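Q: What would this chain look like folded?
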Amino acid sequence: MPLIHVTADENTLGKDDQDNLMSEISRAVLKAEGAPVDDNGANALVWAYYDARPAQSTYIGGQAISAPPIRINITTPEGALNAENRHQLVKDLGEIVDRYVGIFEGRLNHWTMMHEVTEGSWAGAGQIFHLADIQSAMNISAA
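A: My prediction, written as C-alpha cells:
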C-alpha cells in the first residue's frame, strides 16, 4: 500500500511521459514490496501523485534553476521493504528517471526519499490497517 509523490518542474515532462513515469515508478514499488505487479488488488492500493511546480520555483544554493531534479517520495508501511528491496528500488528508480529526463551533468537528476509509517499508524475510513492486512489485500505472500 505505497503512497508515491513525485514533484517536478512543469516543463520536465509531457503528459504521456508523465503517465509512463508514474506507471513505471508504481510498478517498481510494487515489485519492491513483493506484490504481483499485474494484480488488480495490488494496483488498486498504489496511490501516486504527480505535482508539477511552476517553472523557476526550485532553488539550489539560493538560485532558481530551470531544470531542477525530480523529487520522489515513497511512503510505505513499516516492514513492507527490507534493506535488499530498498536498495533495488533505489537502483530501479534511478534507471527509470534517467530514461525520462536523462543524466544531469555535475549534479543529480532526482532525489528519492523513503518513509515508513510505523505499524498501527496507517489508517483510513476510521480503521487501522496493519501490515499483514495490507499485504493480504495486495496478494503479497508473507516471507
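The chain has a mean pLDDT of 94.
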